[in-house]
Structure formats: structure tokens, C-alpha cells
Specification:
The chain is an all-alpha fold. The chain has six helices and no strands.
């Protein structure tokens, strides 16, 4: 089995995979506030305070990486796509920790 070396394209993908959900968190909270008829500020403070709310919002925000992943696959930037997968998986220890501990 041939082991592939990490390249700058993988690093770009990891950066996209980590930053994109952080940008989409306020958008997800805004959508939740519109659907639930609550104020954005209230849901934002609940997000900062409650771990269960953080897990829900971050999990939905991670779906934004699918946009970038499919975009890179269509453009045949496979190394960037692999980096996006790695960046998405880097959120999983936090989610598992908050969910179960």
C-alpha cells in the first residue's frame, strides 16, 4: 500500500474544513431563530452556554463542508477534498466529548 504525503492542497482542505463550519454557525443559529420564532441573541447565548445546543448547531454547520467537498470533487481537486474530510473529522472528538461526557 502506497502512503501518500501531505501536500499544501491537503492543508488548504483542512483549513476550509475547519473555518467553513465556524462561519456557518451564526447562519445556522439565525435559521433556527427564524424557524422557532425566538430572538437571535437568545439562541446565541444558549449556544454559548449549553453543550447540547453546541452539538446540534455544530453538527448542522458541518454540513456546509459538503458543499465544498462536492465542489472539489467536480473540479477534480482530490487532495483538497481529502483535506476537507480531515478537517471535518477534527470536529468529531469535541462532539463526542460534549455528547457523552
Amino acid at each position: 500500500m502506497k502512503i501518500r504525503k501531505l501536500t499544501k492542497h491537503h492543508g488548504l482542505g483542512v483549513l476550509i474544513g475547519l473555518v467553513s463550519p465556524l462561519i456557518f454557525i451564526p447562519i445556522v443559529i439565525f435559521i433556527f431563530s427564524c424557524i422557532q420564532n425566538h430572538e437571535f441573541g437568545r439562541l446565541w447565548s444558549d449556544f454559548k452556554r449549553f453543550d447540547a445546543m453546541q452539538v446540534k448547531v455544530i453538527t448542522v454547520a458541518l454540513l456546509s463542508n459538503l458543499i465544498w467537498f462536492y465542489r472539489t470533487l467536480n473540479k477534480e481537486f482530490f487532495n483538497v477534498g481529502r483535506g476537507i474530510i480531515i478537517g471535518t473529522l477534527l470536529f468529531s472528538p469535541y462532539i463526542v466529548y460534549v455528547k457523552f461526557f
